[in-house]
């Protein structure tokens, strides 16, 4: 009872500060573009060797397929807001993956990346998946934004490969980068792409940040305007780089972690909607709704999301949903996609019934609105 009271008190408090808007719903999903689990065969091999635990996320988080996007679009198009626009979905996108063959040819002494176009071509998803992305962008209901070049901390990963770490090399043989991450404290540093321990690593991350933006532009034909760092780890000094590259907005929600350059992290809380950074010029906004049907189950995830949307609207804040690709991925197990999309379908159905004056926006549109309100 006391726990619920504390939770709901905190939920209201964190929705109070910042820019107010109408009843706006934004759905943001991280990790698109990244391979993560390459195949069912790789998953079974990794599990048999004890290199991963049996989590639902590891089992299902695979590269998006054309069918994943097609089925997602069918759900989004079913629901119209008060302006007659379909439900909108913003994938936060990694524009490259490791090129395992070239890294091995270089005897693990040099890193090479594989562009998203090359990645999906290797999976025989092109050109169909590009046409689907193009459709979503042109009709504004599925317009990706930027999540970094890779969803991988390249400096840490290459250090482990060069040192001959047996666990990392065994997982590398399956083209998988994140073995026993939950069990090994040091391996946890592999997923947050912008973690660093020295200035040399920070300089590399700055260059990869810029490189990834260029790859994003090449594939999608437009520049991203919103950035969300993987795993909530990002250093203030890189914000100016984003702004100089034409990205004026950053997602900063809940507890943020900033590397201290010496192996540690400084914890900061970010809850202000539409806050402008006086140094970089970036405007930030938080995600204030969670929707994770794979983790929480269909019923609980919908119930939780609806309560959090209601709280956001109580304080005249946009409801910004945080979710992940693995909830809607069917490349390895199609039933996972069916489960996640059924939950999304029901959530959207409840939203339009409960708030008929709702307005759907993608993240770019929310960014534009927050900048307008600053002027």
Task: Please outline the helices and strands.
Layout: H1 2-15, E1 24-32, H2 40-48, H3 56-60, H4 66-76, E2 90-93, E3 96-98, H5 100-105, E4 113-115, H6 116-122, H7 128-138, E5 145-146, H8 154-162, H9 166-172, H10 199-220, E6 226-227, H11 239-244, E7 249-251, E8 254-259, E9 265-270, E10 275-276, E11 283-285, E12 289-290, H12 293-296, H13 298-314, E13 319-324, H14 334-354, E14 359-360, H15 363-374
Parallel strand pairs: 1-2, 1-13, 1-14, 2-5, 6-7, 7-11, 12-13
Antiparallel strand pairs: 3-4, 8-9, 10-11
Helix pairs in contact: 4-7, 4-14, 13-14
Short description:
This protein has 375 residues and is α/β, with parallel strands linked by helices.
């Amino acid at each position: 009872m006391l726990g619920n009271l504390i939770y709901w008190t905190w939920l209201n408090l964190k929705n109070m500060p910042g820019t107010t808007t109408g009843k706006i719903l934004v759905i943001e999903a991280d990790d698109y573009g990244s391979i993560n689990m390459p195949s069912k065969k790789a998953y079974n091999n990794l599990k048999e060797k004890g290199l991963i635990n049996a989590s639902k996320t590891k089992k299902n988080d695979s590269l998006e397929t054309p069918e994943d996007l097609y089925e997602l679009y069918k759900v989004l198009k079913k629901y119209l807001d008060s302006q007659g626009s379909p439900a909108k979905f913003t994938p936060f996108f990694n524009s490259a993956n490791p090129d395992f063959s070239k890294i091995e040819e270089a005897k693990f002494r040099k890193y090479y990346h594989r562009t998203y176009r090359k990645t999906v071509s290797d999976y025989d998803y092109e050109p169909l998946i590009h046409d689907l992305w193009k459709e979503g962008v042109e009709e504004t209901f599925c317009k990706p934004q930027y999540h970094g070049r890779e969803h991988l901390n390249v400096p840490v990963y290459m250090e482990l490969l060069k040192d001959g770490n047996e666990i990392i090399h065994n997982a590398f043989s399956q083209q998988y980068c994140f073995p026993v991450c939950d069990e090994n404290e040091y391996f946890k540093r592999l997923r947050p792409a912008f973690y660093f321990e020295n200035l040399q690593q920070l300089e590399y991350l700055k260059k990869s940040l810029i490189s990834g933006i260029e790859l994003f532009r090449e594939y999608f034909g437009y520049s991203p305007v919103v950035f969300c760092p993987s795993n909530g780890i990002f250093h203030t000094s890189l914000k100016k780089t984003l702004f100089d590259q034409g990205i004026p907005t950053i997602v900063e929600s809940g507890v943020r972690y900033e590397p201290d350059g010496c192996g540690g992290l400084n914890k900061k809380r970010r809850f202000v909607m539409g806050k402008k950074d006086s140094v970089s010029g970036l405007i930030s906004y938080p995600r204030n709704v969670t929707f994770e049907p794979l983790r929480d189950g269909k019923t609980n995830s919908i119930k939780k999301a609806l309560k959090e949307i209601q709280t956001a609207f109580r304080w005249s804040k946009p409801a910004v949903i945080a979710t992940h690709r693995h909830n809607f991925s069917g490349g390895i197990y199609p039933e996972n996609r069916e489960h996640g999309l059924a939950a999304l379908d029901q959530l959207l159905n409840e939203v339009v019934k409960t708030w008929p004056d709702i307005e759907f926006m993608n993240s770019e549109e929310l960014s534009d609105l927050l900048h307008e309100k600053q002027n």
